[in-house]
Structures
1.
Amino acid sequence: MSFLIKLAARSFQRVCNVKLLAAVRLYSTAGQSGVSIKAGPRTALADEALKIRVSGLSPLQEVTVRAVVISDDDSMFDSSAQYRADRQGELDLTREPSLGGAFTGVEAMGLLWSLLPVPMEVPWRRLFKKDVLKGPQFVDLLVHRDLSERGRIPGPVLAKTRVERWFAGQGVTRTQLSEGRVRGSLFLPAGAGPFPGVIDMYGDEGGLTEYRASLLASRGFAALALPYLGREHLPESLSDLDFGYFEQAASFLLHHPKVRSLGLGAVGTGKGAELALAMVTFLPQVVAAVSISGCHANTGGELRYRDRVLPGLSYKASLARMLDSGVLDLSETLADPCDPRHRASLIPIEEAEGHFLFVVGEDDRKWKSEVYAAAAVQKLSEGGRHNYRVLSYPGAGHRIDPPSSPFAQAVLDQTLGVPVMEGGQPSAHAHAQAHAWGQIQEFLHSNLGGSCV
């Protein structure tokens, strides 16, 4: 019975979304003559900057500019900000500050990185593209009369436009892998190649995440989005991970005819970052690692590779804190990797011949990635290694994704069933994403050969 109730509630929610969209389109007939909104480029990759301009307003007229996106699963996300036109009745979001709403100040891409589920949707969800080749992500941009707060019915629509945000460039191909034990999606740029090869991994939430790999392919990399948990023929828990799986994935990619034979890069976030560090340490095929909000020790289950065994750092559930907001704070639950008692869990990165890029948010509240990066750098330095670089961003949280990826300070954990704190301040996090993305590509190109696209 509870299932039927939930199904009925979900159906009702969808009907509400359809009605709301219809209302938005109906409002557009009540517009102010001569007002227009232009956004460009109208068709672009999702990591490209967008310029939004409004014209035809009255001098100093106050309006609300809003973005609306329908996700792959038909959920609605929106954002809005309040503006005042200049004395010519024009509004340029690259120059004019937001007076209120989802953000304040000059934030040209603010309407995209501040997208959140609308109040009628399930909260604490992050918007991302699940099927990157299933068309673009459509973003509807609307100008509403007067200033309105999020969650309230906005004023009449004065103008609207739509832009397309693509997660794969023209000619990028995807191959679903079942090569031996290896699973995932291989994205290849257009052309004959060979291209620098990169393995891309996310956290221990499991499943397949493609959007970073597809964007890397759009920028000239042969990128393998590599799942390692919670997918067909893959383990369900970290305790069952076999590092040989990652060795096989690296061997497959390096021997692909469209991949350069100079060595691979590994990019990871969270647990994926930790695995990237292990790959550049243990696998000769991997010569560069990007650790985004990672730990320099093995966490969760035991890591075995040939004659090496790294015990997994454990989590202490009793140190979890439920905040007044109903969000779970897990930042203190991981055992301290810097404690001498846990030395055996440390990844011996000082043995690596490759290069490291550590990307950390100084306000990461999922775990202490800034502390871990500092300890990793100290470990490398003490071993006489200078093959690293650190990008440390004040105000950034845990999940530093490609530019304009919607920010979420807390995200619903599918296993725990409650939102988990990831930290960060919206604007600072967004600017960190924009800067880090270019630096990551430069690092990979400089160590794998080739030039930035």
2.
Amino acid sequence: MAGEPWNRVNIAFPGAVSSVRVHFSSTTDASVKALLVENEKVLKLIRSEILQTEVRVLYELLYFLNNSSRGNKTFKGLKQVEQCINRLKSMKLDVALQELTDLCPKRIQRGLSIKAGECDVPSQPMLEWLSLKVLGAAQLMSCTLNRCSRAFTLSKQQMKWEEFIILNMVITSMVSRLWVIVRGILVSLSTLYQQLLELLREVANAQPMPFLTDFSLPADMAQFLAPSDARLLTKKPAHGPLARGHKYKQQRKKTSSVKGKNQGETREVKEDLGVAVERVIGPDADMKPFLKVFRDFSEGKSFPQKTHKADKKRKFKKQVREATTFTDMAAHLEEMIPWCKSQKMEKEKRLLSFLHLKCQRMKCLEAAGYNVQRRLRTFRQEACWASSPHGSVPTTCRPSAATRRHARLTTRLQTLRSRFKSSTGVKKKLLKRQRERTELSVSGLSGDDQRTRTTNEATSSQATGCDRQDDIDDIFASVGL
């Protein structure tokens, strides 16, 4: 396949003339007109803003995933889709088709050429070269369809594994749209190829200038493509990213129509669906049934699931209170934890799992012969609270780290409170002393008090002087003087 002339990015351009003058009739006019119409369809699809937008989204996704998902299979599938898009750009198919449009005569030229009987049309080498381009583009579109389907399958598989759900949703939607656009291009290329062959036969009969000597053009695009891709040219796709949804809708329509027919055969009652039925509730209407419905709704009678949960919790609490050993307690907890998980009671499951770990530890101590009856009574309270956690958390149910942190904070607060009280007492004593001194200085001392004070001071000074003199005499006497 690599050596085929159509499987090249740049097919050698023929050195012959691009246009020749041939006999122009109404049949040739119809062939040229149909060729221009199909050519315009392909150009619109290739140059459409929708395709360019999807290609830009593909490039942005690959740039975003380049470093983080190089080993991912979905990323590799997107890289293969990018390679097909880049090869289509490198082929410059739009440039070749635009050149074909320029070589074909316009509507006014065709009208004049029919009267004259002659007109300039693309030559045989030019048409054969364009046919090779179209064949290569069709094979490339077929390969792109397969790559898009593979990338879609890989991304869908990741979504089933719950990996990168939002990213894979973007990838699947983008690949699905690309698949639809590429299939439209493939179908348009098939019809364009048929019109090229018709004009080529007429030009080859008028001016034979063969360009392809070692390769014969296939008579139909379906013969050139693989059987799985050839089916896309003749009917709506029976497989692909969007086929399952379409098939499911068709089946639903068929089943609904069959059911309608069967019901029409069995029931022959005529119903006038066009008549409106007025339902008015007057002021005298009895509202008790409606109020009863809302009362039952508020009381939870319409929710049997809530009643089932309450019964299950009540049964568990009864089993916990009746448990005499930690072995029985562990069995009840192992039964309750999966039930909480199935009911999506995350908080209860987490608390009971924590208690189950404690129960396993206490079960080992119980097996070793230790007396754990007092701890079992406390554990019963913790298990009952964990099954319906309302209010403050019991102290025994807190984790050890949280308990130590709480005790540390309590000790620190008590220390700060005692310091504050002691500092407040000292300040009060100082203020009291200052107040007493101020009162004494303001009132002053009386005369008798002053005399008594001076007399006491003189007496004390004399006594001190005598004591000092006696002490000196004793010292000299001890020395022998």
3.
Amino acid sequence: CRTQLVVIPLNVLPSFGFLFDIDGVLVRGRTPIPAAKTAFQKLVNSQGQFLVPVVFVTNAGDCLRQKKADQLSHILGISQDQVMMSHSPLRMFKRYHPKCVLVSGQGPLLDIAQDLGFSQPVTIEMLRAKYPLLDVVDHDRAPGVLVSLCFKYFSVILFGEPVRWETNLQLIIDVLLTSGYPGNPYHHENYPHIPVLACNMDLMWVAEAQSPRFGHGTFMVCLENIYKKITGKDLKYEALMGKPSELTYQYADYLIRAQAAERQWKQPIRTLYAVGDNLMTDVYGANLYNRYLEEKNSRKDSKTWIQAKVAGGKGSNELASSAATHCRSVLVCTGVYNPHTEVPLDTKESRTMIFHGHRDFRFDPALVEPDHVVPDVNAAVDLIFQLENFAPN
């Protein structure tokens, strides 16, 4: 009896891509996690080129993607095209780009909006200057410098939590209840309201304080409840972006395939590996997108959500076609998740207790179960190379 040795050939071209979270995976604050440098030495060749397509996905939205790329330069030289902010999918909503839009958040909002393609963004401060009587909470606060603005607003874009919540809440409600004509009387019959697009739904975020701090998701809860209290109707979102949104992963999928095409890798990208440290965003989002891919692949000739929503179907086929077939979640233990202190996930009640997702995302306990748990990002890269039988030249 002879034993036949089966040799499995190693793959030298990638059929997979990496979606890396940043905070808690690559860095802690401004300090690089040691395993990240080791991991990235395995991901590039001697010329510094990536051996596999890589996208860095963050829920941050208060800066330009080039700034985030610069912050990672001490680990590895990357281009801004590899960085995906929570607001990056707004590039695909081209039908809003030439119109006047109200933007809420903090940071260089006008620069961010214009970089995304919006030609007529207006900040809350600019709107307040034009309509000083609308913001009356702080009686000692002087109105801003009057500027010439649009007469009608066609949509509201929520980039992140603002500094002055009361001002932003008031003026956004004004715009919604007047169909984009702030300063006019409210008309409750104007429903549905003008489109609202929101980025980053994190209810809380981990800071240097002993307890988590309010995030943009908390601001959204305030806005939703004020709107419903006044009108008796639900605030509707045209789109929700940022992890765990399917739209975010679909856009990241598109960026992965664009990198592969640019490098002229002929092998189709079949599997995405989302590496993160947060059960509620990274793991939940990756598993949710994997479920979407499985349902999409089971239906032939089905029109995707994004084809229906983005740009009225124009220019969206490139985003929706030839998507990956799987998205696997890989949880690392260098950030938010700590295997020694984490709430046990053995009951539905305990999982629901730690879920702080947006109201439009139905909680499913199965979606917080990672496919793999590893100590750090270096172990994640080793595991994935092994799973893919990948050995680049």
